[in-house]
Amino acid sequence: MIKLAGLFFTLCLTLSGCTGYAGSRLQTGVSGRAEVLAEMGEPAMRWQAADGGEQLAYPRGPLGPHTYMVFIGADGRLQKIENVLDVPHFARIETGKSDQAAVLRLLGPPAPEWTVYFEARDELVWEWLFCDDFSRLARFDVLFDGTTGLVRTTMQRPERRGRDGTAPFCGR
Predict the structure, then answer these.
(1) Reduced to 3 states, what is the DSSP secondary structure of residue 26?
(2) Does residue 8 belong to any structural domain of this protein?
(3) What is the C-alpha separation between 153 and 136, in angstroms, rounded?
(4) In the predicted model, what is the mean pLDDT of the chain?
(5) What is the pLDDT of residue 19?
(6) Are the CB atoms for 111 and 128 separated by under 8 Å?
(7) Which residue among 13, 20, 55, 131 has its CA within the 20 to 30 Å range from the CA of 84?
(8) Which domain holds residue 138?
(9) In this structure, are 91 and 124 located in the same domain?
(10) 5: pLDDT strictly greater than 50
């Protein structure tokens, strides 16, 4: 019984440590920049908005299928938090028009260990793990022309790390 209670306590501590993963304790319009940083940590990337606001990127990969973008208004208050690794955000990437800076600002940094340059094709590939529309793990790739830095194409494919070679469920 003591072992079971210890296991339960450890599980509770583990779960409570994850509450800052998506900033779930933060309140839109109420929480300030300092609270965001205390809850979610230092962002991997940040951008200044023309209106004086700020955008902060919190990638949770390579094993986590989320990147949270936090938008802070010019008044220093939280405007919104959104997971950007989803099909609607991927659809904003324009072949032949979007460049690396635009993709970074839209999706956040890719997993460095999955970034590959193919010399023969003069192509750079960035990759993210995400939870697809069927709640399965998948990978999203953006392929850049190595000369122009513009998006050549994008693609998504299942993450086949399940026991039977299928994509495991990831939940939402």
Answers:
(1) coil
(2) no
(3) 22
(4) 87
(5) 42
(6) yes
(7) 13
(8) 87-158
(9) yes
(10) no
Could you tell me the maximum CA-CA distance found in the chain, to the nearest angstrom?
64
| Ramachandran angles phi, psi of 113, nearest 5° | -70, -10
3 state DSSP class of 16: helix
The reported pTM is 0.84
In a domain, residue 142? The reply is yes
Indicate whether 94 belongs to any domain. Answer: yes
What is the C-alpha to C-alpha distance for residues 144 and 151, in angstroms, rounded to an integer? 4
Same domain, 106 and 79: no
Q: Which residue has the higher pLDDT, 7 or 170?
A: 170
Query: Do 75 and 43 share a domain, yes or no?
Result: yes
- Same domain flag for 101 and 115: yes
Residue 22 bridge partners (DSSP): none
How far is residue 156's CA from residue 172's CA, in Å, rounded to a whole number?
Answer: 18
Q: Which of 85, 115, 88 is nearest to 100 (CA)?
A: 115
**Which token pair is 70?**
């936090």
pLDDT tens for 26-77 read: 999 999 999 999 999 999 999 999 999 999 999 998 888 999 999 999 999 9
Identify any residues that bridge with 131 across adjacent strands, giving them in sequence order: 137
